[in-house]
Amino acid sequence: MTIRVLKTTFIASALAMALAGTVAAEDTKPKDAAASVKKVGEVEVLHWWTAGGEAKALGVLKEMLEGQGVSWKDMPVAGGGGEKAMTVLRSRVQAGNPPTAVQMLGFDIRDWAKEGATANLDDLATKEGWEKVVPEALQAFSRYEGHWVASPVNVHSTNWVWANKKVMDDLGVTEAPKDFDALISILDKAKEKGITPLAIGGQPWQEATLFEAVALSTGGPEFYKKAFIDLDKDALTSDNMKKTFDRMKKLRSYADANFSGRDWNLAAGMVIEGKAALQVMGDWAKGEFLNAKKVPDTDFLCYRFPGTQGNVTFNADQFVMFKVKDDQTEAQNLMAKDVMDPKFQIAFNLVKGSVPARTDVSDAEFDACGKKGMKDLAEASKGGTLLGSMAHGYAAPAAVKNAIYDVVTKHFNSDVSADDAVKQLAAAVEGAKE
Ligand code: GAL
Questions:
Q1: What CA–CA distance (Å, rounded) separates 293 from 8?
Q2: Ligand 1 nearest-atom number relative to CA 264
Q3: Do residue 364 and residue 287 come from a single domain?
Q4: Residues 428 and 362 in one domain
Q5: Is 61 in the same domain as 106?
Q6: Residue 393 CA: which ligand 1 atom is closest?
Q7: Looking at the structure, do residues 62 and 39 belong to the same domain, yes or no?
Q8: Residue 411 belongs to a domain with what CATH number?
Q9: How far is the CA of 72 from the centre of ligand 1 (A)?
Q10: Is 61 within a domain?
Q11: d(C-alpha 119, C-alpha 382), whole Å
């Protein structure tokens, strides 16, 4: 593990130095690498990567840019899914002072592009051939009305389970559960042994992340698509949706007493320390395991949420470039270019837990979970089972997503019945649709 982290840092430093070297060569007597780099400008970056693994991954980009003479102004706003970050962004744009680049997901990108707040990256994209290497499912959001507005930095997927290997061994669990009932039987075993079965972070976006995995497992990809992408009323009120809500209540019974409001990385920490058996979370959780020096297949296991094998619910973090003053565009363009650099995509995603946002990058350096992630993504993309994550803004516009969050959270944390929940869901979605 240590080797992997060192290797990653090495890749990032080597990359920065190699790129900086071309600039340094122009100076006659460079004192040292940092002092000899020509100052290009500053990028101010708004993001919500505040957990250990996330911050480390972002550090790869920061280091690379600093090596090229771009200074980094960090603007972190914690909160998965980026809801809080979007609120902060709104006030900055209204004040006429947007950040250079903003981490963003799916439909939010479209909203900002529609407002005319985003920069145009077409020249860079054409020069770098992005159209040929960025998966279509991502381009649908990186481009607005055909124009590039964002550099996608990764592809995450949300239908994963992260389990503590030692706990699984102690429970006598030797293989990944294939369906929901098999999952329940593992959770029961953990409960009997006095280990918290399920590490849950009780925040709306996390409950929605669990909910979309359960829905996909319960009704399959067609049902998922009808409900969360087409927003079809029959699917939203169907027996499959009722069963999904019932299963959510069942899963809640395996949480500890303190799950309410818990951050996702603290839930991951419970699994890392063996205090909980498993967590259902996107593969940014892997970044936390790696950051704690844990090794896949030795210390922890990754598998698809039972019943969703062959399907991938994706979200991709993209850096949306905003319209900035002329003296900031050189640094902005450099950042947009670096994010798409194949070597950077490897170095960054090794740390982040995600996989590259380009189809032409080798999986050689990735660990077992990363290799599986890349293979699953390619297969799902070919087979029509690559689905936008509802919980992370890739299935429906923000208003709909938030309406679903409200119903899911209310049901999960109260005694609302599944019958009532589906009615509330259909009504909330209907009210939020454009
Ligand atoms: C997601 C984001 C991931 C991860 C997670 C938790 O929305 O796409 O990169 O950071 O939030 O912060």
A1: 13
A2: 6
A3: no
A4: no
A5: yes
A6: 7
A7: yes
A8: 3.40.190.10
A9: 21
A10: yes
A11: 31
Residue 412 placed within a domain? yes
Nearest CA to ligand 1 atom 4: 284
* Domain total of the chain: 3
Residue 203 DSSP one-character state: S
**Residue type, position 308, single letter:** T
Assigned domain for 333 exists: yes
CA 379, chain centre distance (Å): 19
Task: Work out which ligand 1 atom sits closest to the CA atom of 315.
Answer: 8
Of 274, 300, 326, which residue constitutes the final position of a domain?
A: 300
In a domain, 287, yes or no: yes
Structure tokens at 383: 């087979």
For 255-296, write each residue's pLDDT tens digit.
999 999 999 999 999 999 999 999 999 999 999 999 999 999
Residue 24: pLDDT band (50, 70, 90) is very low
Same domain for 89 and 148, yes or no, is yes
Rounded Cα–Cα distance for residues 397 and 229 (Å): 9
Residue 280's CB is within 10 A of a number of other CB atoms, namely 24
Q: Which residues line ligand 1 (CB under 6 A)?
A: 48-49, 54, 80-82, 105, 156, 264, 284, 315, 317, 392
* Residue whose entry in the numeric block shows the structure tokens 């995600």: 354
Ligand 1: distance of its center to the CA of 351 in Å? 13
The DSSP element (H or E) to which 319 belongs, if any, is strand 318-321
Is 149 found in the same domain as 15? yes
Residues 431 and 401 in one domain: yes
Best residue among 45, 46, 47, 48 to mutate for probing ligand 1's pocket (most ligand atoms within 8 Å of CB) is 48
Comparing 49-63, 76-90, 329-343, the range with the smallest average pLDDT is 76-90
Distance 51 CA to ligand 1 centre (A): 10
Give 3-state DSSP helix, strand, coil % of the chain, rounded to 5: 55, 15, 30
How confident is the model at residue 434, as a pLDDT?
77
Mutation choice for ligand 1 from 156, 339, 351, CB with most ligand atoms inside 8 A: 156
CA atoms within 13 A on the CB side of 126: 6
The three-state secondary structure class of 322 is: strand
Domain that residue 249 falls in: 202-254+397-434
Sign for the pseudo-dihedral over CA of 144, 150, 155, 161: negative
**284 C-alpha vs ligand 1 centroid, how far in Å?**
6
Distance from C-alpha of 255 to C-alpha of 298, rounded to nearest angstrom: 25
Let me know whether 80 and 210 are in one domain.
Answer: no
**In angstroms, what CA-CA distances link 343 with 58, 75, 284?**
15, 25, 20
